[in-house]
Amino acid sequence: MEKEDAIIEAAKEANKPILNNEYVKNKVSEVQEEITVNDRINEHEKKISADNSILHSSAVKSEVDTNNEPGKENSLGESTSSSSLANKTEIDKPDMSDLSEKKTDCVKVDVKSFRETNKNLEEVVYEEAQPVFDGTEEPRMVVNRSLSARSVHRDSEAQGSVWPDKAVALTNFVRSKSTVAVSTVLRRLSGKSDDGQDVTAEEDKNKCNEKNAEMQVVSQKTAEWSAWNPLSLVGILRDDTGNTTEEKEVSAEAVLPIAMKGRIILYTRLGCKESREVRRFLHSKRLGYVEVNIDVYPSRKMELEKIAGDSDVPRVFFNEVLIGGWSELKSLDESGKLSEKIEYVVDEAPSFEAPLPPLSGEDDLSSSGSIDELAVIVKKMKQSIALKDRFYKLRRFTNCFLGSEAVDFLSEDQYLEREEAVEFSRKLSSNLFFQHVLDENVFEDGNHLYHFLDDDPFVSQCQNIPRGLTEVKPKPIIEISSRLRFLSHAIFEAYASEDGRHVDYRSIHGSEEFARYLRITEELQRVNLIDMPREEKLAFLINLYNMMAIHAILVWGHPSGPMERRKLFGEFKYVIGGCTYSLSAIQNGILRSNQRPPYNLIKPFGVKDERLKVALPYSEPLIHFALVNGTRSGPALRCYSPGNIDKELVEAARDFLRFGGLVVDLSTKVAYVSRILRWFSVDFGKNEVEVLKHAANYLESSVSQALLELLANSQLKVVYQPYDWGLNN
């Protein structure tokens, strides 16, 4: 009992609130069982030793008493001598080796049980020190790994040396348990998942249930009555749903275009209804084609006039043969002559007279422009200054240079006085060629550390950093935004469904339009977003967000779980105006006016963050019906223009809410609401009633009136729809 009290006291000193935990009580009971096992081992050894001595003495005594007279005849008339007495004693003596083996076997069984108990305790303690769900890793506890292999001492002094070590191990276990508990509480409070926009309270609750189930399996203490778990049925249903979805995706991917030796070219332009009909028709016939949008490739308009006689679109070519527009294509199909044309393009390779697909960089203005003289100087400066890893304010910075080194170079290369060189360096820094490692100043002569923009460890991980320094002057952000809008419109029309709910990622990845988009994003590293008007900023950032999400899915793949979604939304970044922006930073930091993401405790931008200057003055609630992150439950994909941004956002809200985002069942008085309205409810109103009143403005008049009446009478039941994170492929 004294040992047990010592162990409990150690646990109390480690963490008193955790002592009442049922888990720790179980560990104390296991230690008590170990004490009992060890006492039984000692008692068993003493009993065997006493039995051996008694057996040995009684055997010798009985033999001596029976044959105590030398020379006496036995029952057969033989005389017994002293030598025969000795032989007789040796023969009748009990087999001590057998007793010893039995004793050893008994001790081995108990020792084995004792060691296994210690090993189980040790493994549980070690498991608690493993990394937790949010990726943080607790410091490793000092666990005595030789405890389970330690031999059992047979004297009380040896036992006394073992138990203090166990008390230390149990104390470490209690401390680790408290650390894990605190970490779990903080993680639950913060609710961080996928940069704060994709894990709901229900998902978090399911994770806790899964973790509890895993702990029950590890401890092997699950009762028989818990074999029936309703969550298992839910899991089975989810698995069946997932399998059905996968089967649909496989069957969809199985419908591939017909293999052909020839080539089909389709000339289109933006906003052409007949071009949509031709696309749909070619898809139904499983005919692969290359689209040439004459708005994206203006030089192809002259080519079309030359080979077709005019620039009307759509125009379809099977190799060098002109099929015509939508009416000609439809008439050929009705007459049955289209099959002959299809056989021709399948069997015959295109001749040199056939139109060519768009070439890489064709009609692309990204690389055009005047030479930036400052960029030429910085390029030479980067080649002359030795970049090193240096320490500044107890921190290590890689690939940086001293301010004095930049001043020395500019003084020699540009023939400037030292003060003039400092002013010139500030001009270079203002143009985002380099910056202070801690953003403490624009530029100062001396021992301050600076690094070039592409050498910044955070900027270098962005997905739109060009190879080498761009020597072309940065174009105005309004011009870049216009080209981005134009290109994204062409991509959405060519590679997305008419309703914008499904995207052909495979075709986008291999298209010249997407390659041009990547070249446009490389121009964003030194633009100025601060002075953009509200309408321009809204349209630009929404279009950029939607294309950036497509880019992220093509590069990193569609996220399959909360941790991968967190990575995609928080770590896939572009550098824009010298600062890094993730999908979450664009949505929550700029478009929502630096509001906390759902289930997060902190805002995206700090008080001293330069990106805070770019944030909108107030949150825009309708952006949630325009931002598409590649999920099935998200809004439709469309392009937005600055001139009609408010009208287009209202149309997007109507389209989303009227077609599944908010369904009102008047018979049961239940409203089925998208989780987007719950996650970002603070943008729509102070409470659930205000959120639904805001959403009612975008419903049909009859449904809106009925919804408002139910809200006024407090008769409405709200059910939030499950969010489908599957890919909108």
Automatic annotation (TrEMBL):
The UniProt annotation puts the region (Disordered) at 46-99
Q: Where is the composition biased (Polar residues)?
A: 50-69
- Renumbered to this chain, the Basic and acidic residues biased-composition regions fall at 89-99
Q: Which SMART domains did the record assign?
A: DEP
Per the record, a Pfam family?
DEP
InterPro entries per the UniProt record, alphabetical: DEP_dom (IPR000591), DUF547 (IPR006869), Glutaredoxin (IPR002109), Thioredoxin-like_sf (IPR036249), WH-like_DNA-bd_sf (IPR036388), WH_DNA-bd_sf (IPR036390)
Cite the DEP domain residue spans from the record: 381-454
Question: Could you name the domain of life of the organism this protein comes from?
Answer: Eukaryota
Which BP terms in the Gene Ontology apply to this protein? Answer: intracellular signal transduction
Read off the PANTHER family from this record.
Answer: ELECTRON CARRIER/ PROTEIN DISULFIDE OXIDOREDUCTASE, ELECTRON CARRIER_ PROTEIN DISULFIDE OXIDOREDUCTASE
Q: What is this protein called?
A: DEP domain-containing protein
What organism is recorded for this protein? Anisodus acutangulus
